[in-house]
Amino acid sequence: MKRNIFILLVLVLLYNSCRHDIPEQLCKEYVIPSEGFKVYEILDLSTFSAESDIELETDTIFRDATFRAILPYDKYTWIIGADTTRRYGKQVHLYFSNPNGWGLVRVTMIGERKPNLLCNPLDDGVDTFTKTVYNVPIGQLGYYGTYEGYDVEKPDSVYRIDIRQITGFEKDWTMGIDSIKSDCIIIPGDPNTPYFYRLIAVPRAHTFFGDCDCNNYLYGVYNKKKNIISIKRSYIERPSNNKVTRLFIGHKI
Questions:
Q1: Which residue in 59, 39, 108 sits closest to 79, CA to CA?
Q2: Which CATH class is domain 37-136?
Q3: Does domain 140-252 have CATH number 2.40.160?
Q4: Category of 101 on φ-ψ map: left (φ > 0), alpha (ψ -120 to 50) or beta
Q5: DSSP bridge pairs for 62
Q6: pLDDT digits (tens, 9 = 90+) for 5-56
Q7: Do the beta carbons of residue 201 and residue 210 sit within 8 Å?
């Protein structure tokens, strides 16, 4: 009898001990992170290439940007800049219509979830996160300049290209690449250079693309930390009429 009472007493103590630890265990991971979303520049390659899209996390944008929540919520509300429009969903994509940029843009995401009253009696279930991104004007894109490099397929053939804002031809939304060979010729370049072409491309803050048709395309990615540009292009080589693909790697000089 005494043994049974002892066992029962032990079980009661163990139960109370475990019960006491439950809130502490559940709340151990209860920390609202300081960052609730990320900002991406996404280069969509699906229209002219079988390659995967390129995603770059960034705090500088031009033309458009994607805002994507990190954490799961029942409801997401986005407030972007001075725009009074409320946007909803875990991810939103927004175009910025001014080629001269908007300067600093304040982005707020409000996440709504079930309140965790066990860990925080004052929790209202609403978390607010804010970031500031820079909507750069087209005339100040970081990759403008002169690059010296080579095509990976022909590493011994070193040459230079120039990337800059152009005048004319929808100048508000386009940029030019001088002295790079492609079948997508829009404006003649300097015939004294080994690659006498100027190609028109549509810029973003760190990437750009040009698409003449499904068989001829170009896109570039700028690595700001290393000051390196990579430009991949596919075109018909003259006079052989062979379809070729080239990858230029250049360092800003």
A1: 108
A2: mainly beta
A3: yes
A4: left
A5: 64
A6: 444 444 444 444 444 444 566 787 777 788 999 999 999 888 776 788 999 9
A7: yes
Q: Which of 8-17, 105-114, 117-126, 193-202 has the highest mean pLDDT?
A: 105-114
pLDDT in tens, 229-253: 999 988 777 677 788 888 999 999 9
β-bridge mates for residue 199, sequence order: 177
The tokens of 186 are what? Answer: 């829009």
Q: How far is CA 234 from CA 18, 154, 209, 214, 246, in A?
A: 66, 15, 12, 10, 6
Prediction pTM value: 0.78
Share of the chain above pLDDT 90, in %: 43
Cα dihedral 145, 244, 173, 185 in deg (nearest 10): 90
Residues 6+ apart with CB under 8 A from 47: 211, 214
The domain ranges of the chain are: 37-136, 140-252
Three-class DSSP category at 175: strand
DSSP 138: G
Of residues 192, 173, 130, 163, the one with CA closest to residue 253 = 163
Selection from 105, 42, 32, 33 nearest residue 68 by Cα: 42
CA–CA dist 253, 77 (Å, integer)? 44
Q: Between 137 and 4, where is the model more confident?
A: 137
